[in-house]
Write a structure and sequence with these properties.
alpha/beta; five-stranded mixed sheet; 21% strand
Length: 183
């Protein structure tokens, strides 16, 4: 977008990591919004959208090196051009498929990363965690064995290294204090 690139990995992040606080949060969620997202995710049987995660780049530079290598030697699997709604700034998405030994490489390297951090998607990640608990309870109630590999144990995320981020303002305008004073 506007000459800037962000390169990350679309992945399946673990609800167990969320529960163990290995996926760090910096915002509280609104109960009503979290319940709504939980119900929607459960009914759809799919994530509403990816959770935007980041990790400290310096913790594992081999991840960025591998991504750089793959994007240089592989042709994109898919290219999507779109116009941004509010700004009409063209945005391009290029996707490279990662499989086999490359997929195994990323799995092993992310085990070395101490924590990831929610940059955007606190309600989506909380909903995925809630759905994981709900579906696990359902499966156990039905007498199904739990292996830990079930889809409900994961949620869709895109993970970016911290040095690849540009945090944009997300400002809100307060138009009324509803008869309250600023104090």
């Amino acid at each position: 977008m506007q000459g800037r690139e962000q390169i990350g990995l679309v992945s399946a992040s673990s609800v167990a990591d969320y529960e163990k606080n290995l996926i760090k949060k910096h915002e509280k969620t609104l109960e009503k919004k979290e319940k709504d997202r939980t119900m929607l995710t459960d009914i759809q049987g799919a994530n509403v959208g990816p959770v935007f995660l980041t990790y400290r780049s310096q913790e594992n530079t081999s991840i960025q090196e591998k991504i750089k290598h793959l994007t240089e030697v592989k042709d994109p699997y898919s290219v999507v051009e779109q116009m941004q709604d509010e700004t009409d700034v063209p945005v391009s998405h290029r996707l490279w498929k990662v499989d086999g030994s490359d997929n195994h490489f990323f799995e092993q390297e992310f085990k070395k990363v101490q924590s990831t951090y929610v940059a955007d998607g606190h309600h989506r990640s909380a909903a995925a965690y809630n759905v994981g608990k709900i579906r696990k309870a359902r499966a156990l109630a039905e007498g199904k064995p739990i292996t830990g590999e079930e889809d409900f144990n994961y949620f869709m995320s895109i993970i970016y290294p911290s040095d690849n981020l540009e945090i944009l303002d997300y400002n809100r305008v307060i138009k009324s204090f509803n008869n309250l004073t600023p104090q």
